[in-house]
Amino acid sequence: MSDTISSLIEQANVALQNNDFELADARFNQVLEEKAEQVDALFGLGSLRIQQGEFEAANKYLSLAGQLEPNAADIALNNGYALAKLGQRNASLKELQRATKFCGNDFVLCGAIAEIFVSLNEADGALQVLERLEALTPQDQIIMARAYGLKNQWSEAVRVLYRLSEDLPEDATVLSELATAAATMRDYRIAIEAFEKLLKVINPSSWDYVKFADLLLLAQQTERSQQAIKLAEDAGETSPDLLIIKAKLQRLDADYTGAQTSIQKVIGLMPLNGQAWYMRAELADDSELDAGLAELEEAMQDESAFLALPYHQQSLLFFASAKYADRIGNYEIAAHSLREANNIRMEEQKRTRSVYDSELAEERVERIKNNFNLTVAEKRGAKSDKTINLRPIFIVGMPRSGTTLVEKILSRHKDVQALGEQESMMSIASDYWFYQSAGQMPKPEGLEVDQWQAMRQAYLDKIVDLSKPVFTDKLPSNYENVGLILKLFPEARIVQLHRDPKDTALSVYENPFPLGHQYASWLMDTIHATEMAEKLMSHWTGFHSPQILDVNYEDLVNNPEYISEKILSFCELEWSQDVLKPKDGDALAFTFSELQARRPITSNRIGRWQNYANYFPEFE
User: Fold this and answer.
1) How far apart are CA 503 and CA 398, in angstroms?
2) How far apart are CA 380 and CA 208, in angstroms?
3) Which of 344, 372, 457, 465 could bond 315 through an S-S bridge, CB–CB 3.0 to 4.6 Å?
4) Which residues sit opposite 396 in a β-bridge?
């Protein structure tokens, strides 16, 4: 390299560091006038164009530089970033893989490569490059946690962020990431603690209080959520998001008039707010259904406004249309709207690479069955504490199979505390399988009593505000963890709910489940997931354990007194007619079944799939 070129490159780089883009551009171009294929100038101009947001130009310069020095990790990294910004995912990944190949264990390059991998939803690439580093910066750890989140390994994401929060207790970014990750895995104790600390280290805006109110509502802390809403309103917040949370709180308080008023305000501010329309369709009187559907269809005619919405708002509008049409009895429109709603969700799942995999689901079921077989079930597990007479009742089954109804019946008993859907057992199971796969814990057949005991205590430590020894945990997906529950709680009772698979599948398909329910966006996947749930529950039933009771939803709604008495007897609870009577003060239900659970038990939802048999060939 000539002295002139070296001097110009040095001047350009200094100008670039000082954000003097005009001078940097001039000096790099002077170099190229002398030598058209000068790598440093091409790389410098490409990097400069990235800072200016001109990604096509950046790609042009960096591609030329990469051809001249194909082993240069920094060139490939910057070009990968430019391509990612241009939406050219595959080309970006190709460049990032090249950067990974040649970056060694350079902590700056590895961290930057991992960050771009995460932005492209490539969790494995990010984790693999971060594994090279002997020490991780705080930013590296945040990126690692995000990568675990992309893999739905939220317990590991929380573990990383929690450790980081202990090192950086006043870092707002860390606390925000921890609150989000913990809330996603429904560890609301950690999420709320992190958010409370966040509010102390920042100057909270009205929007921060709205987010806190939403978190508290998810955690079923309705009074505190209302308090946070009041703080947001006092700070001047009037957004649709605030009104949506108010409407949810009003609905939980059975203030349906207030909820409808709040919803109408949202639609006045944002005519295509999917959440508001979905709630409106649920709460509308029968006399309002035809007009409501017509108004919604008219609003959705604004194609440009509709296409500008986030995917979840688009899908909710179609779910609302389906809700209106189903209630009217127009199943053709309802079926069409459900297809549209779930197709939108499926496209998002494809984009984030979180599509349901039936083969993996089958492998998971077989793995659980093999690890928790009858031999393991017969070995000693944790010991009960007879001094507190603890009697947890786990209500499990596919979502929409009647778990909320069973909990509602039990919650009306004077001796029972209803805790709703607790994520605690899923968290314990996730942690155990993580450590077991890492070789840090044995398979279930090799666990000692003290190890079972530690997991038992870890579950109890996660339960907040326990006031009665008899309590319900009705997280449906705990049907996967029945084997674990039997080992941890010899005093537990487990009620397994079964329902006509087609009714279950339809009920899942017609509700906007979070994307973590990967099976919910395609009817065949929902049917398959239901079959897998039944297969596992049959496995547990085969243990002939006195701790397990199988209940058919159809039997319960056709003969509620007989089956309810059977459930209470199984749970060692005294029979009372009161458990069948909806009443003020009923435990709140934070699920799609909330409105149904407040009404008298009825059998009118049996066989609903037949209304759609002509529109969904999956039911043939």
Assistant:
1) 11
2) 48
3) 344
4) 496
**Dist CA 109 CA 96 (whole Å):** 11
pLDDT in tens, 39-90: 888 999 999 999 999 999 999 999 999 999 999 999 999 999 999 999 999 9
**Structure token digits, residue 256:** 């349906």
Helix (H, G, I), strand (E, B) or coil at 153: coil
Q: Distance (Å, rounded) from C-alpha 597 to C-alpha 479?
A: 21
Residue written as token pair 């390994």: 153
d(CA 378, CA 386) in angstroms, rounded, equals 21
pTM for the full predicted model: 0.84
Nearest to 313 by CA among 268, 272, 285, 372: 272
Rounded Cα gap, residues 279 and 283, in angstroms: 6
Closest CA to 403 of 569, 531, 594, 565: 594
Check pLDDT > 50 for residue 593: no
Alpha-carbon distance 615 to 610, whole Å?
A: 10
SS (H, E, C) 347-387: HHHHHCCCCCCHHHHHHHHHHHHHHCCHHHHHCCCCCCCCC
pLDDT at site 3: 64
3-class DSSP assignment, residue 448: coil
3-state secondary structure of 272: coil
Environment class of residue 198 by beta-carbon count within 10 Å: exposed (0-12), middle (13-18) or buried (19+)? buried
Q: What is the pLDDT of residues 535-560, one digit of tens each?
A: 999 999 999 999 999 999 999 999 99
pLDDT at position 599 = 59
Exposed/middle/buried for 380, CB within 10 Å: 0-12, 13-18, 19+? exposed
Q: Where is average pLDDT lowest: 267-276, 382-391, 500-509, 611-620?
A: 382-391
Let me know how long the chain is. 620
Measure the CA–CA gap between 487 and 452, rounded to whole angstroms.
Answer: 7
Longest dimension (CA), the chain: 95
Contacts of 258 by beta carbon, 8 Å cutoff, 6+ apart: 247, 250
Which domains are assigned to the chain? 1-133 (1.25.40.10), 360-619 (3.40.50.300)
Query: For residue 94, how many other CB atoms are within 10 A of its CB?
Result: 15
